[in-house]
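In this supplementary section we document a worked example of the pipeline. Step one takes a protein sequence of length 449 as its only input; no multiple sequence alignment statistics are reported here. Step two produces a three-dimensional model, which step three serialises into structure tokens for compact storage. The input and output of this example are shown verbatim.
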Amino acid sequence: MQNNKLNNDEIALLGSLRDFREPRGTDIIGRVNPFFEWQDARRSVGLWPYSKSTDTAPTTTCSAKGDDGEEVVGINFASQDYLSLSSHPAVKEAANKAIKDFGVHSAGSAALLGNTKLSLELEDSISEFLEGKEITLYPTGWSAGFAAVQGFIRPNDHVLLDVLSHSCLQEGARAATQNIYFHGHLNVKSVTRRLARIRANDTENAIMVVTESLFSMHSDTPDIGALRAACDEYDATLLVDAAHDIGCIGEDGLGHLGLQGMLHQADLIVGSFSKSFASNGGFVAVGTRAAKEYLKYYSATQTFSNALSPIQSAVVLEAIKIIKSKEGRQRRDSLMDNILYMRSQMSNRGLEVLGDPSPIVPVKVGAEGQARLASLKLSQSGAIANLVEYPAVPQGGARFRVQVMADHCHSDIDLLIDRMLQAMEASGCQFQNFKESLSSTANLESKAA
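The serialised model returned by step three reads:
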């Protein structure tokens, strides 16, 4: 990105993280400076919307600060606490009791002495929730997704992933094998073609097909039954990452695996505690004790990481109790009511809402520069929503990833929509002026040359 003739206001509206992904040169530390210069140019004019911190609990309204120290106080649609359990009295009480009984730290790997009575109870509780699956716990959801691939795949095996699969799944594949393939998003025909080609050349080694039950950037879901059929035809294993819908979608909280009747058709299920279960951590669910035990000792992020803390285990145990209860069903109903209300009101007022109903409501803005301006104006108005831009989403497809909670009310949603519309209208005019100014400057320079 050429920026030597541009001021910070202009630099902040251009470029992307992809520009700095592969720095070159012998100085490993020094060669990252151009990224920081670009980042700091954006920060200096208020257009670096990442790495916010909360000064209060991440409830439906909160106080937060940008990494430049600027405070934002207002309605919160940026936290992934879908069932609003992170400040639930029973959940907080469970955490307090765990501290009293066990202290604050597991103090070891689960392969050694890191398990606690609570983590073993948690394995049993998740197993019951998932109708008898064998459970291996991980300290983060990311480490669980990584391990589900890395723990089973070996160098001669093959991994076929949806092109939008989460980073943890892609990195798990890269750590395990060079035989990695991607298929078009949700494209079962593409899956089948890829599987046929792989099997035509290799009938000896394993193939793992990797998908998600809910893709968080697009809020859409695959036909899991069709993927299962393709795997059966070509002797492949099916992994489904259910991080974003397990616990919060469906009458029983089993997400799209439950809605599609596919809970027992996925060979591996990855789950995260950081969306619906009010904690960090994650799990991999498999069908046999043998597979569970193998993961415990051959997936690096389990064997060589400290186990879940007793606090995390206690919190998730209490969250599962709530999720399985009448209150849990009511919270899922409230959440879906908010989701449907938001999507309909946004569409009625001219906002472009992507995907299907889920706690993630992607709202398209378009050009990255305009989206950065809109994000700043939205936060200045007292509303918090996460901006996602290229390369996390397609270029020119920047969006707000609005995250809905059960405890939001319709008035919160109405306020967000009002302020989002105002921010997008003002940013559209400002960005158009910027493009015209940039074009005029380029024309003058061309004529002078």
